[in-house]
Amino acid sequence: MTHMTRTSGVQPISSDRHTFWQRIEFACAVCAVFLSAVNFLRTNMFYFTLSDLLFCAALGLRALTGGLPLRLWGRASATVWLCGLVLLCSGLMISSLLSTAPIRGIVIVGQYLFAYLVVALVVCGRDLGTMWTFAKVYVASIFLMCLHGIYLIHIDGQKNTAFVSGNGRLTGFVERENECAAVIALAMPMLMLLASKGKVGKVYAIVIGATMAYGILLTGSNTGLAGFAFTFLGFMVLSGSWKYVVVGLACLTPFAIWIVHSGRDYLPAVFQKRVLGALETGDLSQAGTFDHRVELMHEALGRVQETLWIGVGADQYQVTSAIRQPVHNLYLLLSTEGGIMAAIGFGVMIAATFLPIVRTYRVPGGAAYAACALVSVSMFALMANAFPHLYGRFWTVPIILTLGLATSYCRAVEKRSIGNGALPPARILRAGRPRSGLGPIR
């Protein structure tokens, strides 16, 4: 026998005998989040990591013992999100079935469904305390990756390995330089949220943040550095506390002046070679492979018209390209491989995330949660201009996690408001001015 609940899907009635399996499910979910950026633990046949295996185990156990959160981060936003995902996958699948490699379409569509649906079903719909645990575990994973990279480059001196490229750039557990930098940058809003809510001590947060910043330098990634600056400054401004803005600028300004005048030689050599020159001269041609990426984008723009309705098929851009490489711009890549339907679908998914963000901002004490989610989603949307397919779980876990945190906070405030006889959730006013007199939840 089963029954339906307001926030979940199908749930078994029995409870006590499922406690053990619920703990196993929680452990699997925590380990999956921790290992989401550990890309090297995967099969050789296709893209399936150890983290994916744990996500599958957690999904199955959660379906059997606790029910699945069909609403994810809200009924309307989840519906729009799923509609966008269906459009994206349909565009890729239809184009692939009409191409010379239909099997690749099945594989790539499966990857997108796993990254944007399975991960969301495992992570979302939990209480706020559990979401805090996920956030701490994820930040700890990225911190350990940066520490590991510092050890390999400065102590062990490794090069041309799975974790350090031949020219000395950190690839980390992700095994890709620019992706490693982007993943580090995506973890920054969560660290700042943890620190602002007292979940991580300020001293620990500074140490972790400095280590992550140095990890960005070791990747030698212009994209990663820009993303790190965007998330850091964006959270400080949007969180609603100008104290953090003033303190942050007061700390960063002397450091920047020192770097310009006498600290250049203390920076990693790969950062000086690939990033610092472009920053000092303003010449983007010195910024790594910028010119080559622009060339790929020009080629893709020239092909969009002929692939407007039916694309060339998933993973077929590099096969049909004169340069024999995929364009590093997801919007253009989806337009050429899956047609306009796939590109619109991805845009719809991004747009669907803003409703829970706005709702969280209007909840008392929700500004920091909303800022964390907004900065993460905005950076993800911007990063899509610099990378090909974004179905790696190291991309989606931080985005889904920040949205889940915001939604869980909203539900916690709503439950407390109703439990204390306060106004219904729909009538909660803007942050800092709750009519019920209730303070924010930490």
From TrEMBL:
In terms of Pfam families, this protein maps to:
Wzy_C
Its GO CC terms? membrane
Q: Give a yes or no for keyword Transmembrane helix in this entry.
A: yes
Question: Keywords on this record?
Answer: Membrane, Transmembrane, Transmembrane helix
The residue ranges crossing the membrane are 20-41, 53-72, 78-98, 105-123, 135-153, 204-237, 244-261, 330-355, 367-387, 393-410
Task: Report the membrane topology from the UniProt record.
Answer: Multi-pass membrane protein
Tell me the compartments it is located in. Answer: Membrane
Q: Which residues form the O-antigen ligase-related domain?
A: 210-346
Protein name in UniProt: O-antigen ligase-related domain-containing protein
- Write down the species: Ensifer canadensis
The organism's lineage is: Bacteria, Pseudomonadati, Pseudomonadota, Alphaproteobacteria, Hyphomicrobiales
